[in-house]
Structure prediction request, 285 residues.
Amino acid sequence: MRICRTIASLRRALSAPIPGRGRVGFVPTMGFLHEGHLSLVRASRRENDLTVVSIFVNPSQFAPGEDLRRYPRDPRRDAAALRREGVDILFIPGDAEMYPKTFRTWVDVTELDDKLCGRTRPGHFRGVATVVLKLFHLVRPQRAYFGMKDAQQGLVIRQMIRDLDLSVRLRVLPIVRDADGLALSSRNVYLSAEERVAALALPKALRRARRLIEGGERDARALRAAMRAEISLQPLLAIDYIAVVRLDDLEETAQIEPGNTLVAVAVRAGRTRLIDNYLSGEIKC
Ligand code: PAF
Prediction:
């Protein structure tokens, strides 16, 4: 595995001939990798001739006061895991490499970026879209891989790909969960033992939502109430939002449309923000 810390070295590594038909798969991450990330890496390895992974804790997607400084990092462990998975290139730039002092260009995916997580994390999706576009431009992948846990991020990136006619196929792959149902997240390490137990209310509420939809429930209010009842049983959790939205535009919907519905939850457990969702439909392009 080649490790590239600069844009110039990444470009050099990518200019070498690629075996096979030259298909490049790309997995952008912020590191502190878990099985969810590795499932994306494995899919990229299966579907492409060359796999590039980036690790960059992107400062522009953290609002002031968020966890940028304490975000968990372990680049050595990550590099060892990626080497074991057979990754070809690891791009691990520093902040100044990605955002030199003269940096001025931002990508706003309007109307999708101010809903759900965008309400409590203003500027978050601007930071995500900007860094992902920059990384796409550097890596020039045929396919890019993201996790479904960040469903809104997947939708923002899909919109950007469509609007800017980017020639990259978006692959948003299923959430990977611990045995007890908690969605894997690098931020789970922040949770105390009690908070982690309380956090299981999220997958439980979403399983209930799924059963209701599959059983024919179409009233979004009933779904939200059922989930709120489940999560409110946990005093350690403060609900940020429980949303039932259309997948195509993230607008709240009164009537659930199977195949076009995202049921999404965000809570705070102490200082940790957790998200999870159930999707009836697909995010791809
Ligand atoms: O999902 C993430 O880890 C990040 O938002 C991403 C896509 C790597 C951009 O910084």
About this structure: The longest strand covers residues 237-246.
